[in-house]
Specification:
single chain; 2 domains; two-stranded antiparallel ribbon; 46% helix
Amino acid sequence: MTPTPLTDPTAIYRYRESLAAVDALTAAIVHLDLFTGLADSPADLATICQRFAIHPRPADTLCTLLVGNGLLRRDGNGILHVTDTAQEFLVAGSPSDARPYYASIADKPGVADFLTVLRTDRPANWPGEEGEADWHAAMRTEAFAESFTAAMDCRGRVLGPGLVAALAGTKPGSQPHRLLDVGGGSGVYSIAVAQSFPQARATVLEASPVDRIARRTISAAGLNGRIDVVTADMFTDSWPADHDTHLFSNVLHDWNEADCRRLLAKSVAALPHVGRLLIHDMLLDDDKSGPLWAAEYSVLLTTVTQGRLYSAAEIGSWLADLGMRIVDRGPTALGRSVLIASRG
């Protein structure tokens, strides 16, 4: 049985997930001089992108970070204004100008990476010793897939018990019977479900070489008879059609909106009419004002993947276009939540 943590590991995981936030802040302060520009002329996101020659996905992530830190505020019309703090410390000509403090770290490689992402909307290389390609390309190699999946597996051993606790709190009879774990990595979430719900079976849908890691992990947990692994590209290959519940656990945040919509459409097409869709992830506030941890983590995701974090409102609008709606939401662990969606 996957043990529920006895102590709170939040600080351990938060530092790792927030490591790119200072690079984004430095890029905004020094390279864009964003606050000086907005002090003279507040603007919405589209205008900011045009004015500073940056792309909407990383610009949205950056502005969410700055709003979450109290350096920008967004009015009811979506116009972004500098706050009093930013006006005092981050605008040219201020007696308390703190921009030189950040200029001293403006040449960090991570700052350059985020600036490139802002200007190209392409993910940077993974910050490894070998200078791997971006995350999506690097995951096709055996060594990187082993290392990265191990990292996600240890986090999943904290998140898994939180997920099953949230599912156990739903109405009786609504727990999964046949779970399709889409992009399920090592199988850590399927293992948590199988261990907590004796009636449940699961299938991990994963591409090579992660599929082999999943088979090994499931075998080590003694669950070969209850958890299967299907090797498939989740975007291009067909999905098993005999599962009443689909799970996307920390998956959508790796992909842009168009790809997220594609994945959800494939899920809805494969689900039975009474099936449920579970989206387990860290979520932004609907007004993109935070939470700060989510805003910080979203910067990291924007830097190394094609995605970012999304809000429940954004995901809900995509589901509505597919005839689905969010019927429940519950907290899990490490600032994550699970959204439960069904038809009607």
